[in-house]
Amino acid sequence: MAFVSIFSSAQETTEGTIKELSTLINESEGGAKLQWLDSLSSFIAAETKFESDSIANATVDLALTLDSLEIATWHTSLLIYYQNNRKGNAAEGRKIFDSFLKKASGTRDHKALAKFFIEGGDSYYFLRQYPDAITYYSKAENEAKKGNHKRYEGIAKLYKGGTLSFMGAFAEASIVLQDAARIFHEEKDTFNIMSAQNTLSILYSQNSFFKEAKKERDVAIDLAVAKGSNGHLLSMYYNAATDARKKGNRDEEIDNLKKAISANAKVESPDVYIPNLYGSLIIAYSKMDSISLAKIWIDKLEAHPDKYTEGQARIPYIKSLKHYYFAKNNYKTALQYGEEHLINALEGSQYEDIQNAQKFLATTYDHLGNERLAYRHFKAYYAIKDSINDVQKIHALSYYQTLYETEKRDAKILAQRSDIELLDAKNEIRGQWMLFGGLGLAAIFGLIILIRSKNAAHQRRLLQERFSQDLILAQEEERKRVARELHDSVGQKLMLLTKKTREKDDADMTSLANGTLGELRSIARGLHPSTLDKLGFTGAVEAMINELDSHSNIFFTHEIENIDEDLSRESALHLYRIIQEVLTNMVKHSKAKSASIVLERDVNSIKTAIKDNGQGFVLAEKINQATSLGMKTLMERAKIIKSKISITSNKNKGTEVVLITPVA
Length: 664
What we know:
Elements: H1 2-26, H2 30-47, H3 54-65, H4 69-86, H5 90-104, H6 110-126, H7 130-146, H8 150-166, H9 170-187, H10 190-206, H11 210-227, H12 230-246, H13 250-264, H14 274-287, H15 291-302, H16 305-308, H17 314-327, H18 331-347, H19 351-367, H20 371-436, H21 439-504, H22 507-527, H23 530-551, E1 555-560, H24 569-590, E2 594-601, E3 605-612, H25 619-624, H26 629-640, E4 644-649, E5 655-662
Parallel strand pairs: 1-2
Antiparallel strand pairs: 2-3, 3-5, 4-5
């Protein structure tokens, strides 16, 4: 009852204010009337759902009549916002912006101009004319700086950074977004802090830094939940779904899309976002072969064609239909929608959209047996992909190098502080020595040095461990990317080449092409174990053991419990790599005749025991060897998954490796 009472009171206050201002407008003329119109229009935009633009239009008309360009510019910005964000008609918003652009240049109100350029930039952004959007966001940024309006400067940078990121200009986007985040923190602008974190998470995920993206996004989601900001939650859950799609996790993708749809139901203009949300859900269900579920959401879009299938909404609509018909094996209809989507994508500058449109057409033409057109679209797809991935690779290296340099800098600062503190302590103790001649203080001084020395050594060790672990994680991400590239890029081209050699009936060329394709797949499997995704951890380990058993002189036995549900994706990968490293070393160096592998689960942990009857080695010598990178990597991987590892080995008595991995 209290909530209803408060709400009713707030609603009555709003209606009362509008009525009071309307009365004052009707009773006034000239400049006084403009002041009241200005107040009413601003109040409606800020305090209501802004469901009509009539008051803003009246305000602009009177302001222009009275040569009040500042007020006219400000309320024209509100009109553009209304079209972009309330009506979902960015084309009309751009039309208003373009027609007022010359007039706006005559105002000296930097705040009004900053807002005007931001809203104009949004119109171009929603129409996917990204270079123009960046031009106007930059103008907004400059105007905000001139007027020292920090919030508008931050917003302009935020939108500019997000647009640069969609265009693939990751380095510039990162710098601009970090500037925006700094401004919002200085201004204590919680709303836009969430927006900046969300946009940074998108930038990270575009560069396959999914862990960093999730970290940024999770913090922002917690803040958005606490603030009840459904607009932010809608965007964050949608982006989380995009990351899940890129990682091939359909269930997680659908779960996040449903959360986004739930948040969208609570925003002021839900119809604007429904085509993208429903369309993404249709694509996810289509790729899962859940045709009936996909059709349910298509029917929801087609129930309101004027809102959800035409105008700006047509792009996500046809995008979803092409995947739906492809899943139904209706490739000709899928092709029609795919061609239309590519035409629309090429009108914009969003590289991922163009890239995905080209790949879809290549795959569809391949299913239709048109290898010439399939190859043409594959070529266009890889031209974009190779260009962007070159940039991504540079920035991946840059990211981890920056992380390393930061840690080195912090370690250097820590060492310098320790040296200063140590020098101060020495001077202090020297004075006390001369004053008191106390041998006891010398002992304390020695203890302090010892403790500090141990602490400094401990800190250096922790920094080194952290860097080593980050290096392993970066290496794993790069291996995965290269394996994917080999499979998707070179592999597809080799498959096309193999088909062509078969058509030419050249046995030697066919044999060479098939052999090369087999070697490529073998290399890709070595870089990243695709069996983990296909078979799960337990099946992948069994497959690895069986393969070694058939290709080596060692007789393998194994007892492996199914522990797939007990390991996270990351832990499964690292445990797999540890077992792979141990078994590979065994085959290469042990000269063993037999070996056993046991994986068993108890209440709190998983025990992995690998034992052979080979020639063994001296453990201390092996670890200290400069070439024993594999052994050091094995130790670091164990630390990453918080496992205890013990290695027992003696000359001519075999080796046993035992790993205890905790589980939740």
